[in-house]
Design a protein that fits this description.
By secondary structure, this protein is an alpha+beta fold. The chain is 29% helix and 17% strand.
Amino acid sequence: MKLFKIVLVLLVVLLNLVFVPPSSAEPKTPKYATNSDYIEVTQSLNTLLKAKETPAEAEKYTPEELDNKIADLEFQKYTLETGINWGQCRNETGKTLAVYGPNPKKSKSTYDKTLYFLGAGQTTDPEWDCDGIYIPSDAVTNLTTDGQTLGAVAVKIVDGTQLVVKTNADTGVLELNPLPAKIFKSGEVNWFIPNVSQASIDTRVPNASLQDQTD
């Protein structure tokens, strides 16, 4: 009987070791914490929060601009923390829109992202991860305040963002909402950024993965 009790106690201890994690174990790092967009947004947010506390840095912005930037980054951070690790792009320009997305599985491309084409009125498929769009060399957008072209550039959106691109009916200006996280010229990021016009983009067959219109 005594031996049975000893064996029973040892068995209970062994089961606790196997099935109950030690209290000293470190908490598991959430998946979003390793997301490159999350890291970038968090760093930008921390920089602005510090700037708000430093008069010399805060002078670079109006109080309203600084508060709006901080609020926008806090919202982006929250969205990424919900686990959405993809972006979505919607084309309301009336023309073909070039978008950046993941490389095909069998792709031999040396670029980090592949250029796809999204037809007028189309929206990329959820979870396909639209990373941003290509702005043709002759396009005027709301990314500048002087009505000038940016030249051929790629604009990047963070995960969890739905980017809507429209053409202003009165001015013909491409309007991006929300404004992108970053703008890249050729050579500044490992994405293919050709120097072509909108007319060239319009000749391409749409091939981006699309949202099911019956949803």
